[in-house]
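re the bet — no i am not wrong, look at it urself. input seq straight from the record:
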Amino acid sequence: MKSFRKILVLALSFVLTFTLAACSGGGSSSSGDSASEGGIDDSKNVKIGVLVADATGAEALAFRSYYENYIAKQYNVTFMYSDELTDAAAEASAIDNFIANNCKAIISFASSDRPAQIRKCAENKVYYAVATGTLSDEEYAEFKDNEYYVGAIGPDLATEFQAGYDMAKFYLDQGKTKFAIFGGATPYYTDMHIYRTAGMLVAMCEAGGGTYNGASDFGSMIGKIYEMNCQLEPAKIGSVEVVSYIGGYDFDDAWFGKLAEAANNPNVEVLLTVGSGLDTFAAFKQESQQLATVDSYTADAVAAMKSGVLNYLAGKYSASIGPIFMATLSAVQGKPIRTANGEALALSQGYWVATNAEEAEKFYAVDSSTEDPAYTRAMLDTLFGASYDDFAKFVSAYSFEEIQNLKK
C-alpha cells in the first residue's frame, strides 16, 4: 500500500505540473487514496471547462477563486476557463476549444445561447451544467431527459422576485415611503432584473394600499412590466411613491445625470437597486438616504457597509457553485444525480442578506476563505452520488445560518 501511495503521489504530481502549464490549475484529494470514502475517484484528473461572460467583475473573480484556490486543491480536477464571452458564436468556439483539450464536462456562467451550448456538449458526449442560473421552463422541458445535461442551480425567478420584495419591505416596515429605483437591465428584457423590480413594486402596493398602473400582485405586475415594454416610470402607489426610476446601463453623461438627480432629490429616502448599487448611486448618495442592492460579498461591498454608503446587501456567496461542481463530477464518474423520473437538476438558491456592517463582515470572512469556505470538501463529498431528494435538501439550506449548522 505504501508503494502504491508513493506511485500515485508521483503520478498526480506529474499531472498537476503538466495541467497547470495548460490550464488554470489542478489538484488532488487531501486523502491520498484512489477513492475517498464517498466513492470519489481521485486517481484520474478530470478536466472541466468553464464558460464565463464576465472575467473581471468582483463576483466572477470570487467564483473563480473558489474553484481554483479551493476546489482544485481538494480534488483531482483541472478548471480551464474561457475568455470573456459576449455572444453565442464565442460560446460555441470556447466549447470547441474545451472539447479539443479533452474536457469531460463544462460548467457555464455564460447565457447568450444555453440551448446551443447544451446541444453541442451532448453531441460530443460532454457533460454540461449551469452555475448561478436557471433554464426557462421551455428549455428545461427540452433538455431535462438529456443524459449529458446535469442541470442548473441558482436563483430562479421566484427567488429573484422575493429578493426585490424583501428589500423594499425591509424599508417599508420602517415607515419609509419615498423611493428611487434603479432597474438595471430591465429595459433589455433581462428576466432577473424584471422580477426583482416587480418584487419591489408589489411590496410597495401592499404597504401603500395602491397599484402600479393597475397592477398590484405577482402575476399582474410581471404582465404590466412587459406591457410597458419594460420601460418603467415614477408613480404614486397609494401612500408610497416611486419618486424616480432609472433603467439601463448607458454610462453616458445623461445617464449619470439621472442618477445624480434622483439621489439629490430631497424627497427620496431610499435608493433601491436591482444590482450595481455601488456603481450607480454610491457617488451621489446623501448621508440621510439608505442604499440597497443585490450584488456579491466583496471587500469593496463590506467597506461600503462599514462606511454607511451601503446599507442593505442581498449577495451571492462564492461557494454557492460548489454543489453544481459536485453534481458535474458525480455525472462524469458514473453516478449522475437525477430525479426519480431520471430528469436533470433544477434547483434554486437564494441570497445571504446583510442589513448591517457586522453581518456583512461575518459573511465575507467565510465567503472569501480558501481554507474553510461555506462549502468544504467534507460537505460536498456527501453529495457525490446522492439521491435527488438528499441533494435538493442540501441545496435548499442556503442561508448563512443553515450552512454553518451543516458544518457542525
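see?? The chain has two domains: 2-156+318-350+375-407, 175-296. told u. also Confidence is low (pLDDT under 50) at residues 1-35. so pay up
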